[in-house]
Amino acid sequence: MNNKILLYLLIAFFPIKEGIAQAEENNNSSLNNEFERKHVLKTNILSLLTTSASLSYEHTFINLTSLQAGIYYGRSTLLDGIERLSITAEYRMYLSKEKSLLVGTYLAPYLKYQHIVDREEDKNEKTTAVARISTIGVGLLLGRQWIARKGFTVDMYAGAGFNPQVKLKSLSQLDKNHPYYFSERRWQADIRLGMVIGYAF
């Protein structure tokens, strides 16, 4: 008799146990759903050092690859007041083959357009010339991205590029005693460093 009762209890407990396990699995999936997140909005916190702002959006469309578009604007006091507006497109190839999308080490060739306003000043910090320059360039990044269980992301990268097209669009010479010398070579190198935070969804 006791054996039958025990058998009935085991039969009754088995689906309950399975239900609890399934609920725990679903709960873990909901907490760990970086596996299914395909979009990331993020900003480069290093841009705060130069009183500027950046915003980028990444979307995966094929396993281990994604496209990212970003926009940056700022006027750097560290670089003689150079003002920049840049638009960048990246094609990211993830190399680490993580189970999660958009996670791991990646290589990213990129295309970049810049509009630059270069203000030259004299010793008294008076503006003597304003040059407006545009560049189009390409480059390569190496980086790694992490996504936390609740969707928060960290993306760190470094890379370099080259601007084969550099154009002086306009020049306002405000002081003829301090002529502005335009040099394409000055604007051809493109160094990129980033520590980016964001949210994946």
Description:
This protein is mainly β. The protein folds into two domains: 1-31; 33-200, Beta Barrel (Porin). Helix content is 15%, strand content 57%. The chain contains one helix and eight strands. It has one helix at residues 2-31, and strands spanning 39-44, 52-62, 65-76, 82-94, 104-121, 127-147, 152-173, 189-200. The protein has an eight-stranded antiparallel beta barrel with strand order 1-2-3-4-5-6-7-8. It is elongated, with a radius of gyration of 26 Å. It starts with a helix and ends with a strand. The model is unreliable at 1-31 (pLDDT under 50).
The count of domains is: 2
Mean pLDDT: 83
Instruction: Please give the oligomerization state of what you see.
Output: single chain
Task: Write down the overall geometry.
Answer: elongated
The CATH C-level class name of the largest domain: Mainly Beta
Strand content: over 45%
Radius of gyration: 26 Å
User: Which strand order does the major sheet show?
Assistant: 1-2-3-4-5-6-7-8
Which H/E pattern describes the elements?
A: HEEEEEEEE
Termini, distance in Å? Answer: 56 Å
